[in-house]
Design the sequence.
């Protein structure tokens, strides 16, 4: 089952925060995304029900293997498209914004083909 764009963004955010912080909590996600606590709470409930995260009794959020796989995929796409667009001369802020759009909607086959093409022409 393929999660929606919002779920992918949350999982990617948890992954990025876990690289920066000793533990990830809902408040960290709220601060990073500038979302209300109620919105993040509902999203974390859905991600937990789907088996993509575990929330400890202390409120620490950890990606499960399925959540990490999705987050890794989205993060790879995000970094690839941001870098590629910047190399094409797109301003960094626009490259990041456009990468966020591209990372969700492209099929695995198309992404791999684009990545292979770009990497072979460097």
Sequence:
């Amino acid at each position: 089952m393929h999660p929606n764009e919002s779920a992918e963004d949350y999982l990617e955010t948890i992954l990025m925060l876990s690289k920066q912080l000793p533990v990830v909590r809902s408040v960290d996600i709220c601060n990073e995304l500038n979302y209300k606590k109620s919105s993040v709470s509902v999203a974390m409930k859905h991600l937990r029900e789907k088996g993509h995260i575990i929330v400890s009794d202390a409120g620490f959020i950890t990606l499960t293997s399925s959540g990490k796989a999705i987050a890794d995929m989205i993060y790879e796409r995000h970094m690839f498209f941001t870098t590629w667009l910047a190399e094409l001369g797109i301003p960094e802020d626009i490259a990041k914004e456009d990468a966020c759009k591209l990372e969700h909607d492209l099929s695995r086959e198309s992404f791999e083909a684009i990545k292979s093409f770009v990497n072979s022409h460097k």
The radius of gyration is 15 Å. The mean pLDDT is 94. The chain is about 70% helix and 5% strand.
